[in-house]
Task: structure prediction
Amino acid sequence: MRWKGMVFALLLAPLAGCAEPPRFDYYLLALSVAPAFCEDEPQRKRTFAQCQAPSATGFRSLPLTLHGLWPNRADRKHPTYCGGESGGAFCSLPPLRLPPQTRARLGQVMPATADCLDRYQWAKHGSCSGLAEAEYFAASTTLTERVNRAIGGEIARHMGREVSLAFLRETLAKADPALKDAVTFDCQTPRTPDPVKRRPMLREVRVYFERDPATGGPGALLAYARAGAKHYNSGCPQGRAYIDTPLD
Result:
C-alpha cells in the first residue's frame, strides 16, 4: 500500500506544477518618487544602495521608479507569495532568470534591483500573476516607461516645489489620455529627523490595469473608480503635492 501511495503522489506532482494562478481581478502598477521614499527613514540612506548617491540629475532622467506590479482582487484579499518563497532578506531570495535585455531595462527603471527589490517583488507578487519571470518584468518595465513619458517630465520640473494634481491630470490627458482616469497620487509625510522635510510629499503614483484574459498579463487601462479607489488624491492636502528632490 505504501508503494501505491508513492506512485499516486508522483503522478500528482506534475499536475501541481501546472496549477492555475490564484484568481485576481486587475493589476496595480506602483511607481515610487524615490527622494520621498529615501527621506522616509534615516537608515535607508545608509543601507539602501538606491538612496546612497541620489542626484537631481538622476531624478530628472527617471522621476518615477518601479516599485511593483501587483495582481489585486476587488475584495482586497490580494494574493501573495504564490511560489512559497517568503521572509528573510531580499537578497536571500532566489535570483531571477531574465534575458540580458530585460535585465538591463529593468535595472534602468528599478534602481532598487541593487537592493534585490526585483527578487522580492517576484516572490510576493509576480509569482501570483501566472506569467513567467521574463514576461512579468518586461510588462512592468514597459508600463513604467509609458507613465514616465506621459508625466515624468512635469514631476521633475516641479522639484523642490508643489504641483497641482489637477495640473498633472491635465498633463496626462494631453500626453496619454487613457491614463488620466487610471492614475492616482499618494502623498505621505516622511518620518525624517529634518523638520524642514516633514511635509506631505508625493510618494507614489499608482496606475490600474485590467487583467488581459488572453495573456494573463496587464491589459487595457482601468479607471481607478472601477478598481474601488474613491479618489485620485490620497493624502495630498488641497490637491497639491510637494516634489522632494535630492541635491547634486
